[in-house]
Design goal:
Elements (H helix, E strand, L loop, with lengths): L47 H8 L13 E4 L2 E5 L1 E5 L3 H6 L4 E14 L3 H8 L15 E2 L25 E3 L2 E5 L1 E4 L15 E4 L1 H6 L3 E2 L6 E3 L5 E4 L11 E3 H10 L2 E14 L9 E13 L2 E8 L4
Parallel strand pairs: 5-8
Antiparallel strand pairs: 1-2, 2-13, 3-4, 4-7, 4-14, 6-7, 8-9, 10-11, 11-12, 12-13, 14-15, 15-16
Length: 305
């Protein structure tokens, strides 16, 4: 039987054999969530020549400044990951008509303020998705209730600076999220639970975050402020978001800045495949950050081999 009295103490979930999130996240908690991310696209081609020219141009590269930050109810929010495929992407690729289409993704990392120029220089001409910077799908079998500053899993991180354990060239960085899925073995029925993103253990510790309740994907501060949520846990297709009004002061104090990395592909022509004389694919990349409150960016087409 589920011990419902734990609802006032989510940290106690750490000590349970069964995480109450197996019942699913409460859908009413999706009401009013910030919804940001890439908008839907539906690229259309006029002819083969224009489609091939489009692939080799920077036309229609996403301007992340429009899609990773928003303000709602007086609070600023940052998207920590966003992705989209053009409408009918696979149908266009495999069809018999002239087409242009594509896909794009972006994700948030933290770097030292004085290393942003080095990051841009080291990436330019490369596909960020082909580097250590890319957030590969590595699922963590923690339960939601274990992602709490007082659940016994973050004590050593609570008073330490945010570390930058990862490296791209000479640039050190850290990821901002962990991916949760509590499925542990073949007899575990929790594979039916929606997987979700949660804040990294370091951010959970430093911001003193915990789930708002046993069936909640909201991560809140001790005084109840919403700090992070993944709307996808509630069936809402939107980016996981951080409350930047809470996160920005921490980063500022530690000499870090948020950086969004962009990758994508553009396809155009007819006859999908490397042997087609009338088809081409080109990858692109980019780096977006803020300086003195103003957006800065560098975007590029990936060098062809």
């Amino acid at each position: 039987m589920l011990p419902w009295d734990i609802s006032d103490d989510p940290a106690s979930l750490y000590y349970l054999d069964i995480d109450p999130s197996v019942l699913g996240f409460d859908p009413k908690d999706a009401d009013g969530l910030p919804r940001i991310g890439f908008p839907e696209t539906d690229y259309q081609a006029d002819n083969i020549a224009s489609a091939l020219a489009w692939v080799n141009s920077q036309d229609d590269l996403p301007d992340l400044a429009q899609f990773v930050e928003t303000t709602q109810d007086g609070q600023r929010w940052w998207a920590s990951k966003t992705f989209r495929m053009d409408k009918g992407y696979l149908d266009k690729l495999n069809g018999s008509k002239v087409m242009q289409t594509g896909q794009a993704g972006a994700w948030l990392i933290f770097v030292r303020r004085n290393q942003i120029s080095g990051l841009v220089a080291s990436l330019k001409g490369m596909n960020p998705a082909d580097t250590a910077l890319f957030p590969h799908e590595e699922w963590n079998t923690r339960h939601v209730g274990e992602v709490s500053y007082d659940a016994g899993t973050t004590d050593a991180l609570a008073m330490t600076p945010l570390t930058l354990p990862l490296r791209h060239g000479n640039v050190r960085f850290c990821k901002t999220m962990q991916q949760l899925h509590p499925h542990k073995d073949e007899y575990d029925e929790s594979h039916k639970i929606p997987a979700l993103f949660a804040p990294s253990q370091a951010l959970v510790a430093r911001l003193q975050l915990r789930p708002e309740g046993p069936r909640s994907a909201h991560f809140v501060t001790p005084d109840g402020q919403l700090a992070f949520v993944d709307p996808n846990a509630y069936g809402v297709k939107a980016s996981p978001v951080f409350n930047s009004d809470l996160l920005a002061p921490l980063l500022e104090a530690e000499g870090l800045i948020p950086v969004w990395l962009l990758w994508g592909e553009k396809d155009g022509g007819i006859g999908f495949g490397p042997d087609s004389a009338h088809y081409n694919r080109r990858a692109y990349g980019g780096v977006f950050w803020q300086k003195n409150g103003e957006w800065q960016s560098e975007t590029w087409l990936v060098d062809e081999k």
